[in-house]
Structures are given as C-alpha cells and as structure tokens.
From TrEMBL:
Location(s) in or outside the cell: Cell outer membrane
Naturally occurring in which organism (per UniProt): Sphingobacterium arenae
Pfam families: SusD-like_3 (PF14322), SusD_RagB (PF07980)
Domain SusD-like N-terminal per the UniProt entry, residue ranges: 36-218
Protein family per UniProt: Belongs to the SusD family.
Keywords: Cell outer membrane, Membrane, Signal
Domain RagB/SusD: 274-487
Protein name (database record): RagB/SusD family nutrient uptake outer membrane protein
InterPro entries named among the record's database cross-references: SusD-like_N, SusD_RagB_dom, TPR-like_helical_dom_sf
Signal peptide (from-to): 1-20
Amino acid sequence: MKHKNILILILLSVTLGVSSCDDLLDVEVKGQYTEENYFKNEQSVVDAVTGLYGILIAEDFVAHGDYTWDIASDDVYRAGDHSEDEAIETFTFDASNPQLSAGWTWKYEMVSRSNIILTHVPELDDISQEIKDRSVGEAYFFRAFANWWLYLPYGEFPLITQEDAATANYNKPKATIEEVLQSIENDLQAAEKLLPVTSTAGRINKGTAWAYLTQLYMHWSSYPQKEDKLDLAITVGEKITTNSTYKLSDNFQDNFRQKTTALPEMLLYVTSSQAWRNTSTIYYFSPRTQGGWNFFHPMKSLFDAFGNDKRRLATMWAEGDQINIGNAVIPYDAASSETGFHFNKYTTFTPEGRLSFDLLIPIMRSSDVYLLVAEAKIRKSGAGAGDAEINAVRARAGATALDGADKDDLILERRLELAGENRRFFDLVRWDRTGWVDIATILKNPDAVYHTDLNRVNFSAPKNYFFPLPQVEIDKSGGILVQNSNY
C-alpha cells in the first residue's frame, strides 16, 4: 500500500500490452510525481488507468499466482518446482507458506492505484466526460476486482478506502465477510453505471461489471440467510445472457486462440504478444517439451468427466492426441506430464514450431455467467429451471441438449466448460457450503489427487473454505491484523 508520494510508470504499450516478470521490472520510469502534480490532463488519466490493466500480467497475480489456488481442487495437480505448492494441494500449509503472500502485495497495489484515480480524476476539468466516466468506472471495477481476489482465498481482510489512503491509515483490522462483499458490490455497481456498453480493444465494459456482480451474488448466496442474492444474480446475469452484445462465440476453442481481436464472449482478458511475452500464464500451462515450464497438469478425474464431450481436446491433451506445433503434427507425449495430461487452452505455437505468446487469455467469459444464472435458477426453482442457459452453452460445444438438468448436471457443466480457468476450487467451496457437494469426499478419489498425495489431503470444512492470512502481514501489523479462524 502506497504513501502520499507515488511513483507512476507511464506504460507506453497498448492497453494490456505490457510485459511480465523481468520485463515489467525493466519498464523505463518516465517521471516521479506526487498525487497533487500528476493528474493534469486527459493523457495522464489514460496512462494511470493503463497502469491498472498492467497489473493483470504480474506473475504473482493473474499470470500465475491465483491459478495456483485451483491445485486444491480435483482438477489440477501442482507439478512444477514450487515446493510450497505441495502443502497448498494437501491442505497441510501454515500461515508462513510463501504462496499465501505471493499475490497479496499486487492486489493492494491495484487497490492503491484505483484509490488514487478515484480521488483525483472526478475533480478534473481538462478532460472529456467520456474519458472521465470510463476511467473512473475502470478504477471502481479494478478496486472491486482486487478485493474479489483477496476475498476468494482469504475471506476477511483489511479494506483500504480512499479515506484511508488520504490519511495513510493502512494498518487496519480485517473487515467482516459481509463488509467485504458489500464493498465489492458497491464498487461494481458504481463501475457498471460509468462503463460503456462496448469498449475498445482490451478495455472492460458494462458486461464485465455485470459478470463479476453475478459471480459475487452467487458466492454471497451460499451463506445462511442470503438466498435473496439468487434473484440479484439472475437479474444481473440476464443482462448478459439476453444481450447479443456479449453473445457466446460460435466455437468454444476460439476463445483461447484469439491473437489481436477479442470475441464478444471475452469480457475480461489479458493480451500477450510474441514481441513482449507479456504473461507467464503461457509458460506455466505449457509442456516443458514444447518450451513451457510444465506446471498445472490436469487430473485423470477431469479427463474422465469429459467422456465424449468435444470440449475435451480443446481443453486438455491426452495419450493418442495429435498436436499441431506449427511446422509439424506430432503425437502428444503423455510421459511428459506427471498425470498423463496437459492443458491445451493456453498453448499455441508459431509457424516455426516454437511456443507462441500471441494470445488473448480470457479471465471472464459470458459462458461463465450463463452457467451462474442457470445455477441460481436451479437453486430457486429446482431441476429444469436452468435448462435454457445450460443448453445454450452445450449447443455451442456441440453437445446434446438436457431436459430437466439438475444440480449435478450444472456442476458437471461448469467443470467441463471452465476447466483450467481457476474456477473449480472456489466453486466447490460455495457448493460445499450449500450442501451440494462434499469436498473432503471428492478429494478421496484416487483419480482426483496425485498418487503420492493419496490419503494425505487434509481438507476440513469450514476451516479450509479460506486460507490463512500471510503470517508476514500479521507480524507487520503489530497485533492489529488477526489471523483467520481455525488457524
């Protein structure tokens, strides 16, 4: 969290076209400013908001860090060489685990930058109303986005407001879950009012805010006496499902093969390019034999769940599959994976046969919202109530329509549609809370965990609905920040 004097990086590339990892650290600093002297014209505002988008490619945030939470599910094995991930996957961690603090700083950096924009931009005169509204809407959204990705793993955490930033009040106690969710809702509603219906390449729009509101309401509705949020999820979600502006793509895999122009379904995405190698997501999901870093291998239980579903090959490779690597077609080497599978969603190749970084990586898609609306309708009205939304997603995938789809159909559909997109564990948590699933039982399936982890997975509800706060942050607070319950 930042003090009154700030250093702003002027990012000269296109909206999301900034580089990650070492490249991000090498961005040339164009000037050192204070909050009082920086915001002087429209371009300064645009540059500051570009800095918000740029955080999305930070390796310890969207580019890798938050994908790691999904190794706690039955879909993904950690693989790789991050020793701390074993404890996350088996629920044997303590609060000192490095993964717990990996993305914490970046999320608060996004909150800090958003607060600065929200404090200064509304009072500017030398700026068009269109750019002002859009920029303030983006700042509200990204503050909500950062807090959302603090909520999902931690539940309770300190909320840093504009007023806190103005008084340097950063050492705060945790907000309650209700306060956290209310704050996220307020920001997303404010963003929705200001954002345009459609946007230029790389930018968010009203559909993005509506999608995250729908997701918020579905998680909120899993708590006792919060079933009224189901109605809100349906009302907001149908602004996407009934609007051709955010229509589903004609082909499922097209969402993961776009290079320069996003499809209407891609409501939030990160841009990468061969020249800049913007996001390490591609490295982490790709096989080492093809130039990747060989993390996040799909489990056999996920492969089995697909059956004959056509989305399987677009999602993951298995023995017997053929891979077009640009200059040749080769058989998939199942021995290169510790589970026998690799994700295909984020791996493409250049014409010369090298790993390609020309890819728009979706973070939120309309199909996610379709299935959230279907889920809300099933919870409210029973089997069959969500058939229209489920079947829209299935039709696009070339799957047969369902009649009277129930909770188990919905659970399976979300698993198949969103595999590898960092939804599964957090879905399981809210379904466990509502009694739809039993995570502890799911993780006893030998095909859902790596063989050396069998009978070592120590999931316990409600303790492991959330992870502990990073011990380093508790220590720095001097007793103000209190650890999550059960840890």
